Amino acid sequence: MKMKRIGILCATLLSLAMGAATGKAQDNYPSDTIKFVCAFPAGSGADIIVRHFAEKIRPLAGRNVIVENRPGAGGMVALTYTAKAKPDGHTVFLAGGNAVAANMHLIKNPQVDAKREIVVAATINAMPFMLAVDGNSPYRSIPDLTKALAEKKGKGSYAFSSPFAKVIAELYKVRGNLETVGVSYRAAADSLNDLASGALDFGVYDPIVALAQAKTGKLRILAISTPQRTKASADLPTFVEQGANVDLPGWWAAMVPSGTPKPVVQKLNDWFKTVLENQESREFLLQMGADPMITSADAAQALFIKEIEAWGEYVRLAKIEAQ
Known about the structure:
Number of domains: 2
CATH architecture of the largest domain: 3-Layer(aba) Sandwich
Number of helices: 12
Structural class: alpha/beta
Shape: globular
Number of strands: 11
Strand content: 15-25%
Strand order of the largest sheet: 2-1-3-10-4-11
CATH class of the largest domain: Alpha Beta
Mean pLDDT: 91
Distance between the termini: 58 Å
CATH topology of the largest domain: D-Maltodextrin-Binding Protein, domain 2
Helix content: 40-55%
């Protein structure tokens, strides 16, 4: 009996010691360099966004914030790296929450179960993806493109470089009764020469790439994927208003490994909220074709779980088989 009491006492003391150590670690956060993980190469549109937030959060954190580019496998390399990192808030994945959700259904055996292994600390922006054609293309609207692709009878093709872009293109294809072939590119910009040569008919791009290339005349944007026009792209029509049943808004988030202490998650949420309330950052996002998106940590996580479930249906409707 005496030994049992001693055992219980030791277990209690150990638990209290561990709790105290955890609390101290939370109070000291951040205690080291923070890594912002990007799923695309340096210089890409995604990289530009990640580096902006790294720069703005650095003074708030009082620690160095570096960007670590881990491209590959449609974002799964970066996601896996983040999920396996120590859950202490020093590894943060900045990416499309919808893209991560899509990968849970586009990949047959994903190495990460995002629903269990990832937590969204903060939302960053809401942004449409954009269907675009070459700047010298004869197509000036979705009806123009749809008619041309129907006449090609299976010989049409499109470019994509992310899971989200692929699903948008496939939904457009399926709901328009079209036969087109998707061509995957490591980075969106890599597809521009093929689009210019006529090897591709269209591409689906993030707004950073699409808007920048449209300004130079290399691309012509025909539609955006949100249900309504956005503040950032008020002059660009949606698929829906042109008669195409495609409605998939995108959003970016800051994600951490599950098990990250709630006070650390809240601190990250506070930092991003502070940055997003700054006029310079709001203007930066608007120039990138995105609207700032501020939510609580709990609301961000709830949206993420909802998106993971919803994307199973989107992938089914797009008739995409998991690879």
